[in-house]
Amino acid sequence: MFAEEIKLIEDKKYDEAVVKLQSFLSSDNEKIRAEVNYFLGYIHTRWDYKAKKSKLAMRYLYNNLNSSYPHPFAYVLYADVAEDANVAINYLNRGRQLFPKDPMIYMKLFQLSLDKNAVIETIQESGLNDSILLGKVISYLLSSNQWDKVHRFIFRIFNGNVLSAEDNSYLRLIEAYANLFKNTPNYQKAQMIFEELISWDIDNRFAYSHFLGLIFSYINLENYKKATELFDRIPISNIIHDFDDMLYPLGININFESIYCTIFKKITNFFNKDLLRKNKAKVLYSMYLYYPSEIYDIYRYKKSDALILSKYLKLNFNKKVATVLFNMRCHFGQFKEAYEILWDFLKNYENPNDSDIYISQIFDHVLEDDLLCIASYTIDCFQKEEFNEKMFVESIFSEMIIRMHSLNLFEHIRNISQFILISDILDSECAFECAFAYGKDNHFRSIEIYEGIIKREPNNTSCINNLGVQYEHRGNLYDALDCYEKANTLHPSEPIYNNNLKRINKLIQDELELDVSHIIDIVSIDSLEEIGYTIGFCKKIYSINDKIMRDILLRDLKECAFAIVAQQDKLASIMCGSIIEALLMYKIVENNISKYDISEISKKKNAVNYNVNDMGLNELLFVAHKEKLINTNSYHLAHYVKDYRNIVHPAKEKRIKEKINHENVLMMWSVLKRILNELLA
């Protein structure tokens, strides 16, 4: 009769269904009114009906239940909305009497009743074998360790239902455990079932619960050899766990915590004199206790469990054990100990990032004092241990350095980073922090790292600006100016970049004014005479007959002397060399030598008959020495001038990393005066 209304309900068109159903409430037919009240009550209990009202649901369902035509599911729905639990239970008991084979009524009664054992007895007497209902009963019996009753209800499910292979094997597992822990254990029966399950469960869906049950059976049956062999087959890992991450067949939830406590105590006592296996049993149990913390944040383990794993790890490195122990240490706030575990990975050439480890657990929470201990431990490991540096950089380095940077521990950053290649620092996530820390000490690595970052991030204004600061600290003002201009161009609204640019321009201007002032202060007749630039010295040039050459040399000699006194050392070194070269060439040509055999010092094609006008300082010195125009001492001293003169080339100065200083220039000036006196005597 209500096919249209039922279709509307199924299609979730509840408002339309309500309108149609309400038109039947005034019907003279009690059965129709009862059915309509049930449907309306049902609609008002639906979570997805926006206009639902619990009071209306109660009224409609009440009308149905107190009619001559109550609906069995109305008792369940009424129990859900009833404000008084005792009233709900009273109605469920009435429904149970009217519908003694309806499993839903029994299920709701079992859920609400405080005396669940009484309801279980009622279910037992009813003869019901609904697998879902019986599954809920078994779950309760398991949680209260009523193993004998578990055994009985399992047989009820087996006898009254067609089960899948998975459901059947799960029930068999529970049956086996019931045989272990019921009042009169049947270890042989349990052994048989566990052995069957191990053969069937090739994917280890039961997480070694059948192994542990069988080992427990073997020990109680005094079959110690098989117990030991089976125990040895269990790997040391965190794969022994409850079935919380599985869909429980038939809704039966079994928690192994108390069961495994009993089993592992038995195993530990059994291996009391076998320390290796005893320790393995302790490790497996500790890792079992740890397991739910990974997924559900349920922390069953204690510090004593961490100690068990720590002792094991000192003797046998195991990635799974190390991972569990790391997370335990972090949970207890033992960050130094957790950090040492990371090094256990590295020392065994394992990358911690390849395990279920979040290194941030340490560095997001560790306090400064512990962090300093971690830094000291790290340096000690670098100096004493063998490990893969790349793995350290990939896993630990960045997290540690960024945390240290946040606490301004720049010296400690430098102490650790000194062991890391620049290329590896640049590949890390903390290159900026390393450069910044080195910059605090004006360390050359700061410039290398900043330059490396800017090469791949040319618009990184923070690095560009900081590189300018490093140049400025080293006195490279024009390099600093270039950086500040770039940073300011990229980010003109940043006050720091603008201020730096203004400051560096003023510094350059001040330095220029200071240089000019300094030159004015130091250049005088006395200072020129002090280096030997006198009228008498200049008069020697007048012995040169070539007036043009004489005037050029007088001019260059004056400029050279002024450059020396003004401490313009690079300019002075260039002029010393060129004046000596000009004097040598003049004197050689004056001696009617236009070509000369220089094959002794040169491999040029025409070295046997080389044109004097094409000779450089080295060849001119060779000819002058051979022709006795200068003595041997002057010849060797002049080579000093030649060598330093070559440094004037910027590329060579950079390559050999040597600069001309004032002392070098004074030496070159002395050589110049010696040769001039010797040639123009």
UniProtKB/TrEMBL annotation:
Annotated signal peptide: none
UniProt entry tagged with the keyword Metal-binding: no
Statement: the UniProt record of this protein carries the keyword tRNA-binding: no
UniProt cross-references to PROSITE patterns, sorted A to Z: TPR (PS50005)
InterPro entries: TPR-like_helical_dom_sf, TPR_rpt, Ycf3/AcsC/BcsC/TPR_MFPF
UniProt keyword terms in alphabetical order: Repeat, TPR repeat
Ranges occupied by TPR repeats: 461-494
Protein name in UniProt: Uncharacterized protein
